[in-house]
Amino acid sequence: MDLGLRGRHAIVTGGSLGIGKAIARELAREGADVAIVARTKDRLEAAGRELAAETGRRVIPLVADVTSRAQVDTMVAQAAGQLGGLHILVNSGSPPGGSATATGPIETVVDEDLLHDFDVKYVGALRCARAAIPHMKKERWGRIIHISGEDAFAANLPGRAVNIVAKAGMHALSKALATEFAEDGITVNTISPGYIDTERDWSKYPENPASARIAQIPMRRLGRVDDIAAACVYLAADSGSFITGQVLHVNGGQFMY
To answer: What's the domain range around 178?
Structure first.
């Protein structure tokens, strides 16, 4: 079945592992050429070789740090130049709820950690979108997808105020851009993963291990990275052409909004 992605060109941040890598793989399987972006060169290049061999598509590894506007602008220009244009951007650079430094009671959070988390999780997505949109406007066709997290909508764990606000900001950005660029043929949406079985050091979550998480999910399993990748393809393909400014929750029924 042709989903309308053959010949499209995509950027996936956080594309060297986990959810981002699965998204890049699924887009490539459906015929897109993909630039994967991360900060760790060796792992990124290994992922690029692996995905290209699996899918037969061009998979270009590009090293960039989304906290740097200069690096983001250069990365997007390189991706568009090497791929021959840009149609799809998936901001998956920060795992849902993960890599937070500004955790704990809000009165103990220091400004350096607060600003770092906002920069990585929210401002980084904004930088990537800002750089990608001019290329999509030229094509009169674009898909921007932000990978957020249930923290943004449930706010059900204490000590995570900064992560909650940063992740909620990603969806607020989706709605703002969806309104601003709809007439340019660009859709902007959010995917909110629930508990996903991906690369994770479970020792860092003694209060909420995998077994406890599964007990909270009606489907009685953790989500798979492929579940998120499939949702991303749905929004990026022709099937998502009339969906914009929305959030798609992929959580096994743990939260029903």
So the answer is: 9-250
